[in-house]
Design a protein that fits this description.
Elements: H1 2-19, H2 21-27, H3 32-59, H4 62-79, H5 86-100, H6 104-113, H7 118-139, H8 142-161, H9 179-183, H10 185-211, H11 216-234, H12 242-258, H13 270-294, H14 298-327, H15 329-346, H16 349-352
């Protein structure tokens, strides 16, 4: 239960801080392209941090790594209060990306070591997203949002400090070896392409919703639909064939992103958010389950998925801002749908190649 609470509060903090960053950057004078750059800086730092600390979770004491990551994150979340222009916001978001990348692999290894359900554990992350979106919409004030985010991670730190140590197999890792990536290339590549499109959409989505008549609270409600549905879906996927689950996730993604194009009022996107929820639930649970069952370096393999997500945040944020600036919001959704279709075609190799 403690692991689920940590998963809930840390993900609440992530999404509460992230959701309104495009709006904050805009109020600081950032262009759409600069908004994309700010989001990308976070992704770049999260990518390298996730890569290094996922490998560390296979070799180091996972409880110490978890505590260090949470402690650093508390400080980084609160530092966002002091951002005063697009540059300072980008720098602080980058620092937060480093800190947030330190602990997820160690947290997952606690779940694996205690033989808990991964689907149920991940579902509490989705519930945290929902709380974060709603919380950001209700609070509205940026500084209060950042302070509350820091407090929730501090609470998670106290919970983690009181947990018993979990014994998992430790292995010697090569921090500069890419063998795990090569072994699981089809899982990572398909996930990467789809998530580039998703991040491109979410980079400009709050701005898009404002053009459809949504205020901050309604933006928060719309964002919350996705993770609330995920919470119930993810808990029911453990017994299914994960290869089929992943493929279904890509098909749901295609439908979700293309369905955003014809919206003319903010509530028209609600059916699309339901499809997004199904797609992400299937893709995240399915991909993590495949990586853990197919690899001995389980923390590295599953944790690198966070690096893939981070890398797609870099590319997706830049693409989203640039495409929206040149051709409008609907073009971003079309590109996202196309990338998801390519991912589905690549996903046929999940059964053809034994990774």
């Amino acid at each position: 239960m403690r692991l689920n609470v940590i998963q809930f509060f840390t993900n609440t903090s992530i999404m509460m801080s992230m959701m309104l960053i495009p709006l904050l950057a805009g109020e600081m004078g950032a262009t759409l392209t600069q908004v994309g750059i700010i989001m990308s800086v976070y992704g770049i730092c999260l990518f390298f941090s996730s890569y290094m600390f996922s490998k560390a979770a296979d070799e180091w004491d996972i409880k110490k790594l978890l505590l260090i990551g949470l402690a650093c994150s508390v400080v980084a979340y609160y530092l966002q209060v002091f951002a005063y222009d697009p540059l300072s916001l980008a720098v602080i978001r980058g620092l937060l990306g480093i800190c947030v990348g330190m602990y997820p692999a160690a947290l997952i290894m606690h779940v694996y070591g205690q033989k808990r359900s991964l689907g149920k554990f991940i579902s509490f992350g989705a519930l945290g997203w929902a709380a974060g979106f709603l919380g950001a919409g209700l609070l509205g004030d940026y500084n209060i949002i950042f302070a509350v985010s820091a407090l929730m991670v501090l609470f998670s730190l106290f919970i983690a400090a009181g947990m018993q140590r979990v014994e998992v197999e430790r292995i010697k890792v090569d921090y500069f070896s890419f063998s795990t990536i090569k072994k699981n290339w089809n899982i990572y590549l398909t996930f990467f392409l789809r998530h580039i499109g998703a991040v491109a959409c979410w980079t400009i989505f709050p701005l898009y919703l404002t053009t459809l008549g949504a205020d901050k609270f309604r933006i928060g409600v719309i964002y919350a639909i996705n993770p609330i549905v995920q919470f119930f879906l993810m808990r029911r996927l453990d017994s299914l064939n994960m290869e089929k689950v992943v493929k279904a996730g890509y098909l749901f993604s295609v439908a979700a992103f293309f369905s955003l194009i014809p919206a003319t009022v903010y509530y028209h996107v609600i059916p699309s958010m339901l499809l997004v929820a199904a797609s992400w639930s299937f893709l995240l649970v399915g991909s993590i389950e495949l990586l853990i069952t197919r690899n001995t370096d389980k923390a590295t393999a599953s944790g690198f998925l966070n690096s893939v997500i981070s890398l797609s945040m870099i590319v997706g944020a830049l693409i989203g801002g640039a495409i929206a600036h040149q051709w409008g919001f609907q073009s971003v959704f079309a590109v996202a749908g196309g990338l998801s279709l390519v991912s589905y075609m690549f996903s046929t190799t999940l059964t053809q190649a034994q990774v």
